[in-house]
Amino acid sequence: MKAQPAFRRAEPDTRRLSLIAACARVLAREGASGASVRAIALEGGVSPGLVGHYFGGIDALVSATYAHVEAQVSEALDVAVAAAGAAPRARLEAFVTASFAPPVASGELLATWIAFWSLVRSREDIAAQHARQYAASRARLEVLLEQCGLPGPRLRRAAIAITALVDGLWLELCLSPEAFSPAEASAMARAALDALLG
Q: Helices 88-97 and 58-83, interaxial angle, to 10°?
């Protein structure tokens, strides 16, 4: 019988995802200033050289982590919208209120997101990535608002206002969960939609 090797090499996609997960944990715990190649490699249980091998450096890894985290949030919102059924208003409410439930309503996700936001002013690539990601999210919201009968000229501003409300409620819910409940956050968001849509 052939002896099994003491270790197995991870597939490239698996290794990349494990480094992204390690980077997200380091960003959540240490912030952007603590996200070094060494810290991420230690967190991921790999040699520092693998960060360079798979990403070319820390900047590309942080950017890939931002994209991955945003994709996870988008997926959670998509799942909520799909589960809401075919009624336009139910789909809109699901999109707006999904941020107040796991996995989006999470202190760890908040800490990671704050690290990304801190880089928007210092790194042009992260600023551009942030702008693209938020624009895509607002565009999805505009479609849902339009399906609920909101006229075209009002869509952009309405999507910005609802996004700001959701972001603010999400931020407070993650920072001070004892101040109000996810159900109260959802009720406040629904009230805003009532006022907006009539």
A: 140
CA-to-CA distance for 181 and 174, rounded, in angstroms? Answer: 10
Distance of CA 81 to the CA centre of its chain: 16
Q: What is the pTM of this model?
A: 0.87
pLDDT in tens, 99-157: 999 999 999 999 999 999 999 999 999 999 999 999 999 999 999 999 999 999 999 99
Q: Kindly report the CATH number that applies to the domain delimited by 66-197.
A: 1.10.357.10
Q: Give the residue extent of every domain in the chain.
A: 66-197
56-67 pLDDT, tens per residue?
999 999 999 999
Q: Are 59 and 125 in contact (CB under 8 A)?
A: yes
- Classify the C-alpha dihedral 33-38-40-42 as positive or negative: negative
What residue type is assigned to position 179 of the chain?
A
Please count the helices (runs of H) and the strands (runs of E) in the chain: 9, 0
**Are 56 and 37 a contacting pair, CB within 8 Å?**
no
